[in-house]
Specification:
Helix content is about 40%, strand content about 30%. A six-stranded antiparallel beta sheet has the order 6-7-8-9-12-11. It has a five-stranded parallel beta sheet with strand order 2-1-3-4-5. With about 280 residues, it is an alpha/beta fold. β6 and β7 form a beta hairpin. It is built from eight helices and 13 strands. It starts with a strand and ends with a helix. The protein has two domains: about 130 residues, Toll/interleukin-1 receptor homology (TIR) domain (Rossmann fold, 3-Layer(aba) Sandwich), CATH 3.40.50; about 150 residues, no CATH class. α3 packs parallel to α4, α6 packs antiparallel against α7 and α7 packs across α8.
């Protein structure tokens, strides 16, 4: 998902310099002058880009804070922040100006005196809003942090989802891991995706297929008695007859309170993958 840059054309030289640096740091950037062609619907293209972006960099200058276009783009993204309860808007202070009231409590990237320092702040902020492969599931009494990684072992591709559930109500945490292996056809399919640059899309498809498979199964209730790792079994699923096998394991970390514990790992995996589904659906709208 790209990062949308909202700006006034009076500071386009600065924006071009910033965008080039972001691209060099492998950030997917959306700028109107780069993306819109003659004959395109200006409103439709920008609306699609803003609503599908992982974040909005709003360049604050005397001109942009007065621009009606910038105000509209900013309004859309601030509405998304309220709805999604996450950071979407990242202020970039280009010059001294009257910062909008609803942005004054945000930490901004300050480019007024040092471009390098401002760029580093932007990169750190973008990493926080644009990485769809890790996140947090918030519940009233606990939260689960999760991350997805991919690797090659002895020439074969594997995908691993790690989840850590924590709460202040008990003296321990619950750790779950899901290791996904491919059959021969799935291995060839993913390797081909790596070659043609569609591996990120392929990873999304794998995770979404896993979540869909888990929704159709009754989650086994596995009791964790001590610090030893518990094998919760395997779940197989397919993508167009390509077979994947996911192995589930869990364990308890921290103080032992002498009681058995149950970690509903599969349901947490589904919730984590739904975050990817939401991000993908948002980008396609």
């Amino acid at each position: 998902m790209p990062v949308f840059i909202c700006y006034s054309h009076s500071e386009k030289e600065f924006v071009d310099k910033l965008a080039v640096q972001l691209v060099l740091h492998k950030v997917n950037v959306w700028i109107d002058r780069w993306e819109i062609r003659a004959g395109d619907s200006l409103i439709a293209k920008i609306q699609h880009a803003v609503t599908g972006a992982s974040g909005l960099l709003v360049v604050l200058s005397k001109a942009s804070v007065e621009s009606e276009w910038c105000k509209k783009e900013l309004h859309v993204c601030l509405t998304r922040e309220l709805k999604e309860k996450r950071t979407v808007v990242i202020p970039v202070l280009y010059e001294d100006c009257d910062i909008p009231l609803f942005l004054r409590d945000k930490l901004y990237a300050d480019f007024r005196t040092n471009f390098a320092i401002g760029l580093q702040t932007v990169l750190e902020a973008i990493a926080d809003v644009s990485n769809e492969w890790q996140g947090r599931i918030e519940e009233p009494e606990w939260h689960t942090d999760w991350a997805i990684e991919w690797m090659k072992q002895e020439g074969s591709n594997f995908f691993r989802l790690t989840l850590l559930q924590q709460t202040t109500a008990v003296p321990y945490s619950l750790l779950g891991t899901v290791l996904i292996a491919c059959d021969f056809e799935a291995e060839e399919w993913y390797s081909e995706a790596e070659k043609n640059g569609t591996d990120e899309s392929a990873r999304r498809e794998i995770m979404l297929a896993l979540a869909d498979a888990l929704k159709e199964k009754n989650e086994p209730s596995v009791s964790i008695e001590n610090q030893m790792e518990v094998d919760c079994g395997d779940v197989s699923f397919c993508i167009d007859e390509k077979m994947f096998i996911a192995n589930f394991k869990t364990r308890r970390l921290g103080r032992d309170n002498g009681l058995a514990t149950v970690f509903h790992l599969a349901s947490q995996v589904v919730k984590a993958v739904e975050k990817i589904r939401e991000a993908t659906s948002s980008a396609e709208r």
